[in-house]
Amino acid sequence: MIATLRGRVENTRLVRASGRYLGNPYASLQLMLAAGGGLLFFGLIMSASTTISASVHTTNEAPWTQLVREAEFVVLSVPVFWLAVRMAPSSYRRLAYPSLAMAVFGLVGVLIPGIGVTINGAHRWIQLGPLTLQPSEFAKLAILLWGADLLARKESLKTLRTAKHVFVPLVPGFVAIIALVMLEPDLGTSLCFMLLLLGLLWMVGLPYRFFLALLGVVVLAVTALAIAEPYRLQRLTTFMHPNLDPQGAGYHTMQGLYALSSGGIFGVGLGQGTSKYGWVPNANTDYVFAVVGEELGLLGCTVVLALFALFTYSAMRIALRSQDGFTRLVASGAAIWIAGQALINIGYVTALLPVTGIPLPFISNGGTSLILTCGVLGMLVSFARHEPAAVAAANAAASGGSTARWVRLLRLGAPNDNHAADTRSAPQPSANLQSPKASPWDRPSSATPWNAVTHFEPKQSPPKQSAAKQSTPRRRGA
Questions:
Q1: Going by C-beta distance under 8 Å and a sequence separation of 6 or more, which residues neighbour residue 90?
Q2: What are the angstrom distances between the C-alpha of 357 and each of 8, 192, 253, 283, 285?
Q3: Distance (Å, rounded) from C-alpha 138 to C-alpha 143?
Q4: What is the bridge-based pairing of β-strands 116-119 and 131-133?
Q5: Where is this region: Disordered (predicted)?
Q6: What is the spatial order of strands in the sheet that 122-128 belongs to?
Q7: pLDDT digits (tens, 9 = 90+) for 400-431
Q8: pLDDT for position 450
C-alpha cells in the first residue's frame, strides 16, 4: 500500500514538474536568490515600518534618523553582495585565517576603552566614522571559514580518524572566540557560535557518542552562563509562565504575544501596527517577528517561515551537490547557523524559548547584521554557480557564444572547474569502520556525499602474545 501511495504521489503533475525544475543546473542558484531576495525584501519593508517608531520611542531621535542609517548600510551591502558573488570558493578558503585574525582583533578591540562603544553596559561595537560595527557578527563567518578549512585540510591528510584530531584545535578555537564574546557580554551571539561548532561536527560525521557528549557539555555551559547573571536566570525561569510577572521579567514575552495575537490571519496592515510604539520592546530588532505577525498576520509569518525553509533547503542542496569538502562544510554550516538563529529568535518571540536577544537574520534592523547576511548570501550564490552541473552548463553556453545577460551586466565571468572542486580536500572513501556495530556515520562517503570525511578508528591495543610465545626460550643444548 505504501508503494502504491508513493507511486501515485510521484506521478502527480506537481511532483513531476518539481523534478524537472530541480534537474535544471541553475536550480540551486535560482532557489537561493529567491529565498535570500524574499527575506531581504521583508527586512526592508519591516525596517521602514519599525525604524520610525524606534527613533521616537527608543532613542529620542528625529523620526527618520534610524531609517536613514539603515539605508546607508543597505547601500554598503550591495557591493558586498556583488563581491561575494564574484569570488570563487577557493578565494574564500584563502580568506579563512586572515578573516579569523581580523575577527579576533575586533573582539579584543571592543573591550579596550576608547575603541569600543558601550551601550547599556555592553561592549559590543566599534565606531568607524559614521558607522557603528559589531565585530562579533563578522566573527561568525570568519570562524565558519576557518573551521571548514581546518577540517577539510585534515580530511585531505586522512587525519580525521580519531576524536583528538577532530576536536583539536577546532574546539579550543571556538571556546576562545566564545570567551571573548562573553566578555562583552553577549550570550545570544555565543549560542550562534555553539550552533556553528555543532553544525560543523555534525556534517563532518562525528559519531553519535562524541556528538551527544559534546551536546551535553554545550547544554551545561549554556545553563551555567544563564544562571551566572540574575537577569538571565530570571528570563530562564519565567518564559514558560510570563503572565506571573507581566510587568517585570515576563513583560517582553507578554507584549510579543499580544502583538502576534492582535494580527489575526491577514494582519492590521503594513505600517498600521500600534505595538511598536513603545509597547513591544526592541520592535525593530529582537521582536521584529512580533510586528510582522501584527501587521501582516498569520499569512505574513507563514511566508517568512517558508522563506527561511527555502533558504535552508537551498544551502543544504548546494552542500550536497558540491565536490569540494570546504565548500560543502561552509554551505551546510551557513544553513545551520542561519536556520538555528531564526528558530531561536522566533522561539523566544512566541514564548517557546527564553529571551536571548538574538536578531532575526535578514529582517531585524542592524547594519552589521545586514552586511554580513548579504555577504553570506553572495557566498552561497557563488557556491551555487560553481556546482559541477552549473559549471558544465556555463562552459557549454560560452563555447556556443552565448552568456546570460545578467552575468554580463554584473561582470561575473564564467565559473571555473578549478574553483568548483579543490583537490586538496576532495573526499576519499575509507573502508575503516569504527566498530563491528557500524552506525550511519561510519558509511563510506558515497552513501552520504556530505559526510565524506570521518571514519573514526578506536585505539587498538597491541596484540597479546600467546603463552607459548611468552615463555622463555630454551637455551641451546639444554
A1: 418, 419, 422
A2: 46, 11, 12, 12, 9
A3: 9
A4: unpaired
A5: 417-478
A6: 116-119, 122-128, 131-133
A7: 777 777 677 777 766 765 544 444 444 443 33
A8: 38
